[in-house]
Amino acid sequence: MKNKQIIISFILGIILSIGTVYAANINTSNEFSYDNSRSNLISTNIKDSIDELYKMKVTDKVLLDKYKELVGTPTNYIFDGTNKPTTSSKTTPPEGKRVYLALYEPGKYGLCIKREDVEHCFVFGNAKEESLYMKEVFSDVEGYEGTIEGRIKATIYDAEDFECKINEEYGVLTCFDKTKYEIDNETYNDYCDLYGNESMECSSIVSSKVQI
Description:
Layout: H1 2-25, H2 46-56, H3 60-71, E1 76-78, E2 99-105, E3 108-115, E4 118-123, H4 127-137, E5 144-148, E6 152-158, E7 162-166, E8 173-177, E9 181-183, E10 186-196, E11 199-209
């Protein structure tokens, strides 16, 4: 029994010695550096950067604000569904419209709404970020699961002024302005769809005929 204890103690001693040597040869995170030019952090090594992030208590809102800074603001707008926004389009939102398409740069489109006189634009393709942004814009209502055109899964925000839908996997977007207006004894509503950089549309639909 005594010999057995001696053997076990000897083996444990070897293991501890190896572990000590191994640990002594591992670089600490302070010894590693990285390029922090795009992180907005002051720290230049991994450990300090983690500590800095922890102290910042980064939330979705903070990340979202940083994301929106990177996305920027659109330069051209259009409502007419027969054309995409181009560099020759208006540089201000279409007059009187509260839902419209926007061009940020060639091949980068967004769907914008004007809610309570504040413009909010959702950029196609940035599914996770835009989903968070739409949730923030419609914080007054609870989003629920549904579909776009009965076939594309989407999160729906049905507020008093707009009904907007977003597919959180691909970033497919659609918004319906519930504000009604009359033309030639018919009542209309505006909407815009953004299914991709090659498939988009803005138009008006007859919601009802005015009784005279």
